[in-house]
Specification:
By secondary structure, the protein is mainly alpha-helical. Helices cover 51% and strands 9% of the residues. The chain has a two-stranded parallel sheet. 18% of the residues are buried.
Length: 135
C-alpha cells in the first residue's frame, strides 16, 4: 500500500504499470487487469493515465460500476468528447466516428475501464463490440 515516496511503490505495481503502458505502445486493442478488492487497480489505472498524458497521448479512466449495456456507448462517447446525449445505437456510431477521426489525425486514445466486474446486464457484450471496433 501507500509508501512515503508515492502511491503503491511496489515491484508488482511498477510491473503492472509497465505492462499496461507496453500494451498501449504496441496499440493492442485490449488488456485486462485483475486483482482483489483494495489492491490498487484504480490507483494503477490513474497512474497509467498520468504517464500516457505525460507522453502526449490521450487517456481516460472510466468507471463501469453500475453501467449496463444501454448506458455504455453514451458514456464512452461523452468520454471521447461528444457533447450530444444520444441513445445506444447513435452513441455507438459516434464512438466509431470519433475513433476513426482520432486515428486519421494520429491522436492515440486509450480508454482505461475500471470496475467492469461491477457493471450491469449486457456490459460485457458491449465491451466485446468496442474491442472488435478497435481491432
Amino acid at each position: 500500500h501507500a509508501a512515503a515516496g508515492g502511491p503503491y511503490e511496489t515491484t508488482a505495481f511498477s510491473e503492472a504499470a509497465a505492462r499496461l503502458l507496453f500494451l498501449t505502445e504496441r496499440r493492442w486493442p485490449a488488456g485486462w487487469l485483475f486483482g482483489p478488492v483494495g489492491c490498487g487497480k484504480t490507483t494503477l489505472l490513474k497512474e497509467v493515465r498520468r504517464e500516457l498524458r505525460r507522453s502526449g497521448n490521450e487517456a481516460v479512466v472510466l468507471s463501469l460500476c453500475g453501467i449496463d449495456g444501454d448506458d455504455f456507448w453514451p458514456l464512452v462517447a461523452s468520454a471521447l468528447g461528444s457533447h450530444e446525449i444520444e441513445p445506444d445505437l447513435a452513441a455507438r456510431k459516434t464512438v466509431r466516428a470519433l475513433l476513426v477521426a482520432s486515428a486519421a489525425i494520429g491522436r492515440a486514445v486509450t480508454l482505461l475501464f475500471d470496475d467492469a466486474d461491477r457493471g450491469g446486464v449486457g456490459l460485457w457484450d458491449q465491451l466485446v463490440v468496442l474491442i472488435r471496433m478497435a481491432e
